Amino acid sequence: MSSASRLNPSDLIPHFQSSLQSFSSSSSTFRILRTVSHQPPDSKLPLPKTLHVLDSSFNPPTRAHLRIALSALRSSSYPRPQRLLLLLATQNADKAPKPAPFEQRLAMMTLFAQDIVDQQNYDPISGKVAPEASLAVDVGVTKKPYYNDKAVAIEESHEYEDQKTEQQPQQVHLLGFDSLIRLLDTKYYPPSHKLTPLEPFFDRHRIRVTRRSQEGSDWGTGADQDRYVEALATGKMNDVGGSPEWAKRVEMVEGEGEEISSTKVRESAAKRDWGMIEELVGTRIRTYIETERLYT
User: Which of 204, 178, 177, 188 is nearest to 241 (CA)?
Assistant: First the structure.
């Protein structure tokens, strides 16, 4: 475990290069590579009852990712204690591993985890971060490219399991609306091209979907996006194996602030527009991108 106040960015790349090599050569399909918390490194963190999973390419992490994470952590809808897992797939269903290599992304995810811990534990009255706060953020990797398989890999690792009761936390997967579309796209479930492989996923876990609000996007209005979930609820996906019961496991929430694309960050880095990058990703990630000359 890493204390958020003691992170040294220069130490991260060698650590993750070694960790990735070990993970790649192992039979494991999921592994936690780093944990960030304000607790002392030798502290025993409470096992979570709710595990929020933010799964992305993190190329790089942005303020939009931050808002999604904090919105979920600050919601009263989920049992405490909570943990957040930032998850990177080393095999992605749609994207090749470029332009930033995995060890660089994991380094940025760790700095991003520090931002989350600081902001979640921030006391607006004192203007300080509460050092005793117990939120921890894990930085993990998986070899599985699909959400349902990732959820199984996390469970089968037993990382979050109560050894006495053998109980696992409920996973809450934090998605943008575009990711919900991919989750329910039958092309990802050959050979039957039915959604039935998702049954165990929806039996045990939940998804929290942030509506997309970008003007001119393909996703339509918030009402259009809600109607997509209503179609699932009213049986209009039955013919492809979707169950109306699954809609009860989907929470739609409004996005906060301006939408940010990682592509815009990379384009700004190519122009060395560091002021714009800071607006998009924050100080820690901007400093790292500039120092490491990423995306230029």
Answer: 188
